[in-house]
Amino acid sequence: MENIYLIGFMGTGKSTVAKEMSKLLPLRVVEMDETIEMLASESISDIFSNKGEAAFRDMETMFLNAISKEKNQIISCGGGIVLRDENIDTMKKSGVVCLLEASPEVICDRVNNSNNRPLLENKKTVEDIKAILDSRQERYQKAADLTFDVSANTPMEIASEIIKALALKGYLH
Ligand code: S3P
Q1: Within a 13 Å sphere around the CA of 125, how many CA atoms are in the beta-carbon half?
Q2: Between 20 and 30 A from 156 (CA), which of 4, 27, 50, 80?
């Protein structure tokens, strides 16, 4: 089966939904940020502060290129994976891309207790989040094959909704 990529802004629940999907489908989950941290032996925040964002983006692209060669994976991507055209091309060629969407208000609620997201350091108001989201919106749309609103439902409900939509569109064979 081709890969299923979950993309979307920070706090839209990609990791949790990926885990729920793996309970329903015989696919393994790849958590991009977690794996990059393991490979680099450094947290994402430390990579950003010690090496800079560009170095993190290079690692992200390198890792995506490597995993895209495998099949049968649900890949939970970092929120900025869409920032490079090259990454969008890689995902589209090796799987189906599912966009998880939520309003700035919902995202704000969800990210407010976390301190492991360098881009949101001291930028966790609804206005801050809306500004980053607006600047990325076009890229998320460009990357997405299917889009899901994650505001109202539980991760398991969203996982089932995604699987139903993928089956309907003929992606699950
Ligand atoms: C980022 C999102 C983060 C992580 C890094 C940058 C982004 O992942 O990759 O902090 O640019 O949106 P999550 O979306 O899993 O929080």
Answers
A1: 4
A2: 80
